[in-house]
UniProtKB/TrEMBL annotation:
Stated name of the protein: Membrane protein YczE
Transmembrane region(s): 20-38, 59-78, 84-106, 118-136, 171-199
Organism: Saccharomonospora piscinae
Protein origin, superkingdom: Bacteria
Pfam name, any one: DUF6198
Keywords from the UniProt entry: Membrane, Transmembrane, Transmembrane helix
Stored PANTHER family: INTEGRAL MEMBRANE PROTEIN, INTEGRAL MEMBRANE PROTEIN-RELATED
Coiled-coil regions listed: none
């Protein structure tokens, strides 16, 4: 039986210690999962295909491109009248720093067993991390906000808008040299169910007295 999970933003003054810790932990794990997938060499999620493609064409690090992309997307929020939360800003900063730090620790590998472990571990961790930081209810990430904002302004479904956005960034990233592979397909199939699986266990609710 599917359980409904409330994810609307809650003021940061409510249980701040617990929720800010949850937010930062989730974002750190998200950046780690991105680094794991990039080092697997077996394919990335659409946005990371774009990030890798741009990084390969410039002198910027993967994390720098991630942050700059986040800022550009936030500019696109302006006509959509989306509200920036502390979680939105933290998303841009924390993920960019963590992904670069973890990439320094994880070298490229050409052993299929290790590549597969990095890919699968990265996808599962990404699903958990997404649930954790979204479950803190401190504001959406830039890309999620763009998706919901476009859906609201156009009257189209979130699924249709998300698909259109991700197909576009995937195509651009691939043309720029980003890695598309089995990991791209596996991520697309698994990330939704994984996030849904973890959310009921980590989403903050008033009945949980923390902070």
């Amino acid at each position: 039986m599917q359980t409904s999970v409330e994810l609307s933003p809650v003021p940061v003054t409510t249980a701040p210690a617990f929720r800010l810790t949850q937010l930062l932990l989730g974002l750190a794990c998200y950046g780690t999962s991105m680094a794991m997938m990039t080092r697997s060499g077996l394919g990335l999620n659409p946005w990371d295909v774009l990030h890798e493609g741009v990084a390969g064409r410039t002198s910027l690090t993967f994390g720098m491109v991630t942050a700059l992309t986040g800022v550009v997307v936030l500019v696109l929020w302006i006509p959509l009248r989306q509200r920036v939360g502390i979680g939105t800003v933290a998303n841009v900063a924390v993920i960019a720093v963590v992904v670069d730090l973890v990439r320094l620790v994880l070298p490229d590998t050409h052993h299929l067993a290790w590549q597969s472990a990095l890919l699968l571990g990265g996808i599962v961790l990404n699903g958990l991390a997404t649930a954790v930081y979204v479950g803190a209810r401190l504001g959406p990430g830039p890309r999620d906000g763009l998706m919901t904002g476009l859906a609201a302004s156009t009257g189209r479904s979130v699924r249709l808008v998300r698909t259109a956005i991700e197909v576009t960034v995937l195509a651009i990233g691939w043309l720029l040299g980003g890695t598309v592979g089995v990991g791209t397909v596996l991520y697309a199939l698994a990330i939704g169910p994984l996030t849904q699986l973890f959310l009921p266990h980590v989403a903050w609710a008033p009945k949980r007295r923390h902070g």
